[in-house]
Amino acid sequence: MSRLREHIAKVLLFLAVVASCVTSSTAARADEASARGSQAIFAIVIGSNASVDAELPPLKYADDDAARYVDLFRLLGARTYLLTRPDANTARLHPQATAEAQLPRAAELEQALAHVAVDVAQARARHVETVLYFLFAGHGSVRNGEGYLTLEDARLSGRDLATKVVDKVGADHFHFIIDACDSYLVAYPRGPGGVRRPAEPLRDAHGLGDDPRVGLLLSSSSHRESHEWDGFQAGVFSHEVRSGLYGAADADGDGIVSYREISAFVARANAAIPNERFRPQVHARAPKDQSALLAIGHRLNRRLEIDGSHSGHYVIEDSRGVRLAEANTSKGTTLRLLRPAPSGREYVRRLDDDTEFVLPPDREVVALADLTPEQPRARARGAAHDAFDLVFTLPFDEDAVTGYEEHEPDLGDAVLGPPAPPPGSEVSSGPSAKALVGFGALGLGAAGIVIGVTYGVLGVVESNGSTATESQRGASTRNDRIARDRTVAVVGLAAGGALAATGLVVLLWPSAPRGVQAQVSATGASLGFTRAF
Q: Is residue 532 part of a domain?
């Protein structure tokens, strides 16, 4: 009997240890989620429809993307700084963002970074962990293998982001979410010919890819375009990322969206698009020793739940018709999505059968299973782009995350333009070469004309200064001075007139693109040269 009791005691002890381990593991994950939620979160959000590169066409929805990112990060409790120039439609949909927004220009960015640096320093002095999200929607391009983002009046290279954002702010962690062409080369610059530059210390780095504090979520490689779509009224990649961050990418339901989850989510959302030209290519890299991109668990007290028996393709919109998030749920998987603070009705539309549900604003947690379908609201159905109409047509779940394979971005075609300006320089802050040549020639021409007129007058005065009693030697000397003055006057007037005419021609000549353009690919290479004023 005593031996039986000993065996029972050992079994009970073993079970207690196992239970303790399980409880500790669960508590650890809960503590991690809680810790993520208790970080001091800051966000700089930039949406620039216009570009300092005048040849790039203006975007339509970068300002909308920026305003919607602000809505999301403020919902999560972040202190946000918004730089955008809202158009009329964005101003109607997002009046608060419009009232607060600063222009997406270099000076305003410097001010925002200075404010964030003060905020971060105060939080760190109080022993609070800090994290900065840098979100950008707009144009990007590349010169000599180095990518850059464009504001309205300046270019931001990877070196600029490293020095002006990472070094200046000094947060514990940084997450860069960038929706722009050539965004991969902002983080991982390539030398001429597409050769990867060797990793260097942060203070000398050309990009962000070598900094262990920095996490990257980028939209495209060098030859992929970043697309907008009227159906989203947003950038395609930005809409997909926001959908994931609202909770649609949280495949394991732990309240944390990891880099792997968001990568798999975006890839899955676009997997049905047959033409890779319209398929956004995502690159994600988490900071060292950290897999999380964003913690949302601390805000899931107000949420929408879609259980596995109601799987399908869903779109969530607010009362203004702004598309907040989109997802295609898998059978057997429960989806939990953040909901904004109550400010009106929210609508959930199931695209599979064109069914719509209204979310009651006075209920914090709403289960789709408890709602009654309603007749869909009338909505415009324009000629939506066939490719983007396939976005989110495949369901997403943990299996998609497990099977996700990240591919090195294809940089087969690298466009190498004129040499990049010196790091940190603001491209548009000074006059153009055309202006310098034109106004310089005008200035020199004016000076030549003034000198010519002056010496012409001196020659006339000298000629009228002769007298009847003047000696022959004095007359000869006077004649020499008169000849010299006339020569200087003729040369000055001729040279001044020519320079002035040249300056006017330069300034009035139509502008045209200029520079060296090279294209390198696996099948060959081409070189072109253009030059014009």
A: no
